[in-house]
Amino acid sequence: MIIETLEIFRKVAEEKSFSKAAEDLFLSQPAVSSHIRNLENEFGTKLIYRSSKHVDLTPAGEILYEQACRIINQYQEAKEKINQIQSIVSGNLRIGASFTIGEYILPELVSQTARRYPNLNINVTIGNTEEIAQGLRQNRLDVALVEGKITGKEFILEPFMVDEMVLIALPSHPLAKIKGVTAQDLEDQVWILRETGSGTREFSDRFIETLKIPVKHSYGFSSNTGVKAAVLNGLGIALVSKLIIQKEIKAGEIAIIPLEENLPRLSREFLIARGQQTYFTKASEAFLMELSHYSQDTHENNL
């Protein structure tokens, strides 16, 4: 079917790799190459520049990529509308999530959704908040869950959960032994931070700026795992979601630094984000219903 070939072409264009596209689509690389050759024969022109190091679109390929995205989206919209008539939740659902949500909430949520709707194909993209926002802008995602603020009239945003943030360090760190750490106690510390564009980094920067805390030195990591490893190795202190350090707290490997009561409350909202122009499918509705159940259960368990 031509839609399948266009989806393969789009994947090659986005991944800039035949082998990566084949891996993502569970196809052999020769099969992917065959589909691209068929497209080039169909249009009578080269669509992709191939070299040992690079895969890039030709001018004709750029035109086809833009149109292919529209055709695929229109096909999915038609398919979803037909499925709605038949009361079947099926088709493809493209979910984006920032790292904390993607690593610590989404696996269980996707599993629940998949069990309830076995005809639904779910594809997950995890990145920092800015990367996920870009995915929504480019219509590569149907819905996203983010921990940082994203701006723009093109987005619809809705909170779904409150996330508790905590300041952490090794149990042997001097701050971990103080009952009520003040802003002054936090001066001239070494901070472990997420990368720019991360919702956690945004929260940490705002906390430090609000309290006007002088920072002795900072180290940046592009993942929650990297931040935790740096803290575990005694590199410094970090402000993170409590979700990511449950095991380490129970094992006594990491300590939560208790803050003085008059310091700003350490919490933030997790947000549902989707594009204003994105067609809201039955699959998206089903996923958000599962998210609502998850949020309610989590809230009740924390009471």
Automatic annotation (TrEMBL):
Residues 1-58 form the HTH lysR-type domain. The keyword Magnesium does not apply. Keywords: DNA-binding, Transcription, Transcription regulation. It holds the Pfam family HTH_1. One of its GO terms (molecular function) is transcription cis-regulatory region binding. SUPFAM superfamilies: Periplasmic binding protein-like II (SSF53850), Winged helix' DNA-binding domain (SSF46785). Belongs to the LysR transcriptional regulatory family. This is HTH lysR-type domain-containing protein. It comes from Desulfitobacterium hafniense (strain Y51).
